[in-house]
Amino acid sequence: CHPVPKPESRMEVCDLSPCPPRWKVTPAGPCSSSCGLGLAVQLVTCVQIHQGKEVLLEDGLCPVAEKPLTSVPCVIRMCSYEWNFSEWSECSTSCGNGIQTRQDFCLNPLTRKHVNPIFCRHFPKAIVVRGCSAGPCPEQMVGPGARGAELQMVTPAVPLMTAATTKEVRYKDLDPPPSAEPALTQEQAKESSEGVCGKLFLNATGVINMTGVESSDCTVAIGRPLGEEITVSVLESSLNCSAGEVVLFSGRMMWRTGCRKLPLSLINSRTNTLIVKQRVLLPGNGVLLQYSSRTATKKYYQDCDKQLFGPQGEIEHPVQLPDLRQGAVCRTFINVAPRQRIAIRALYIDLGKESNQTHFNYILVRDVSTMKTMVFHGKQQFFWQSTGSQAEIEFHE
User: Fold this and answer.
1) Which end of the chain is more exposed for a tag (fewer CB within 10 A), N or C?
2) How far is the C-alpha of 365 from the C-alpha of 341, rounded, in Å?
């Protein structure tokens, strides 16, 4: 530019109008949790640049729809929880065979404090009920016939609830159990037990015969309304433990497997659903189960949670409850027969005109059998299918 004449340098006064108000975000503070998902608080203020200086304004002068969140999710590291147990109780009888129980707790190994059992539901849990012997009773020691009397199996008077005697009903059609019918003959029991695999039982009480099934892997499910829990006792077992035959009991808050001393076992689901899986190798082997339901000793659900058992249904959110606390995460539990699968289709999603469509607004769907979770954001009208017979759906914000 040297040959070109250079203009004189000069300053001009400008008087621009103030910049429009905007949101200012300070860096987030520490995470509220030492492990797992927590919240970090950040300061959000309304400011305006006037004559090169930042002026603090009232929040109402900044666009409400664009206000950033004051709390953001944070994860320092993943938590590692584990099951912990109390000491075994004394044997329930003073002589003969009885049971021992112990209490289980979900433990945070860092703080050594008990946490909600839902944090441990992914981890297998040891047994909480076991058989015990307090020695022979005096009346059992007289005569050589006493030992033979101990080994006699008692035929239950309750009719076998198998495919031939139980019809699958939807949750809303639950009725009191039918009156007792004559016990099935051995031939009838064998015939009906072949169709029991893959069934869902919704009655309050019943007996399930899983002996003599054709399939080596047999699965049945028991379901009751929210607020109840299920207790299962093993009446008979012909499993060959040395051959690897086994039965597995699993629920949302419990996991137990076993083979030996099953007739002494009492299994509590701790929630309103229970799945029983049996694996046999030798023809004719299996277990005979008796189950019943009662009001749960501890509340394991929220008032806005729902339970679906039927072949189809609609899920609507939010749930309108007068005392529902702000920010409650409402869930719907879906359980179908083990041989069936679940499909969920979002028909309509409305987040509102002034909704803050952030990562706090999402729908979470969990496949319980694989514990895989899918998250759907915004107004996405999704379609989801399960790999097993159990699913959970959660609505956040």
Assistant:
1) N
2) 14
Torsion of the alpha carbons at 371, 376, 382 and 386, rounded to the nearest 10: 0
Q: Is the CB of residue 286 less than 8 Å from the CB of residue 280?
A: yes
State how far the Cα of 220 lies from the Cα of 226, in Å rounded to an integer: 19
pLDDT band at 289 (very low <50, low <70, confident <90, very high): very high
CA distance 359 to 280: 47
Cα(44)–Cα(39) distance, integer angstroms: 15
Domains of the chain as residue ranges with CATH? 22-76 (no CATH), 82-133 (2.20.100), 200-295 (2.60.120.290), 306-396 (2.60.120.290)
- The encoded tokens of residue 311 equal 């072949």
Determine the Cα–Cα distance for residues 47 and 68; give it in Å rounded to an integer: 14
Q: What is the pTM of this model?
A: 0.52
* pLDDT beyond 50 at 210: yes
Mean pLDDT value across residues 385-394: 91
At 201, the amino acid letter reads F
Query: How far is residue 235 from each of residues 200, 265, 361, measured CA to CA in Å?
Result: 20, 9, 49
- pLDDT higher than 60, residue 185: no
- pLDDT greater than 70 at residue 43: yes
Are the CB atoms for 38 and 30 separated by under 8 Å? Answer: no
